[in-house]
Amino acid sequence: MRGLSIFGRSHRIEQRRADTVIKALMIDVDGVLVIGRPSDGRHWAAALQADLGLNFDDLQAAFFKPHWEEIVTGRADLRERLADILVRIAAGLTAEQVLTYWFSQDARLNADLLGELAALRSRGLRIYLATNQEHERMGHLLHTLGLAAHIDGCHYSAAIGHRKPTREFFDAVALKVHLSPSEIILIDDDEENIRAAIAAGWRASRWTGRERIADLVERCATS
């Protein structure tokens, strides 16, 4: 008898979740909305050595691995840290040169996806960015590349102080949009972020580029 009671309660909880209206769609940026170099979609640093004389493995080891966590969560300044590292690994380059190159090369917008998001937005679904970014590149994405015109808002790690896949990131975003977690869907290309979003009570689906966004939203909304 107890087992039936527990099953019934679980079924009711699942039914209430299925009946919840989805009010916000959170979209990851890199690998989803922005897909590499404008010319060919390859990684932004594919020709870094040839174009600037800077080895990406050296940049990874000296800059990204030891410093990116603090930068992307807003605890360190991008330009200051990069300038300090370039003195050691590429003394002839400035932070301005490297950042200009990076931002311009990591800038291919997924036009098809933007069109699909516009259709969903016209039907009343709020569209937000939910991304791990530092302040300067986030501004570039929003205003220089123009993503701000396609969304209702942006939630990024440097402004929040936490990054995906931490629980703090997801809780903070839900609080900012004044929604319960079950009213939010995350679309992301990182499986760890998907698992973390679901653990935080969100609905979520992994982006592979092989499905229509409307189909992913419908699947999440009815699960």
Can you walk me through this structure?
- It is a single chain.
- By secondary structure, this protein is of the alpha/beta class.
- The protein has two domains: 129 residues, HAD superfamily/HAD-like (Rossmann fold), CATH 3.40.50.1000; 58 residues, no CATH class.
- Helices cover 52% and strands 10% of the residues.
- Strands 3-2-1-4-5 form a five-stranded parallel beta sheet, sandwiched between helices.
- It is globular, with a radius of gyration of 20 Å.
- It starts with a helix and ends with a helix.
- The N terminus is likely disordered.
Question: Tags for this entry?
Answer:
2 domains, alpha/beta, five-stranded parallel β-sheet, 10% strand, 223 residues, 5 strands, disordered N terminus, globular, Rossmann fold, single chain
Topology:
Elements: H1 2-19, E1 24-27, H2 48-52, H3 56-72, H4 78-89, H5 95-105, H6 111-122, E2 126-131, H7 135-144, E3 153-156, H8 157-160, H9 167-176, E4 184-188, H10 191-199, E5 203-206, H11 213-221
Parallel strand pairs: 1-2, 1-4, 2-3, 4-5
Helix pairs in contact: 3-4
The tally of structural domains comes to: 2
Number of DSSP-assigned strands? 5
In the CATH hierarchy, what is the class of the largest domain?
Answer: Alpha Beta
Q: Which structural class best describes the helix and strand composition?
A: alpha/beta
Query: Biggest β-sheet, characterized?
Result: 5 strands, parallel
Strand content: 5-15%
Report mean pLDDT, rounded to a whole number: 92
| CATH-derived architecture of the largest domain | 3-Layer(aba) Sandwich
Helicity range of the residues? 40-55%
Give the low-pLDDT segments: 1-16
Strand order of the largest sheet: 3-2-1-4-5
Look at the structure and name the CATH superfamily of the largest domain. Answer: HAD superfamily/HAD-like
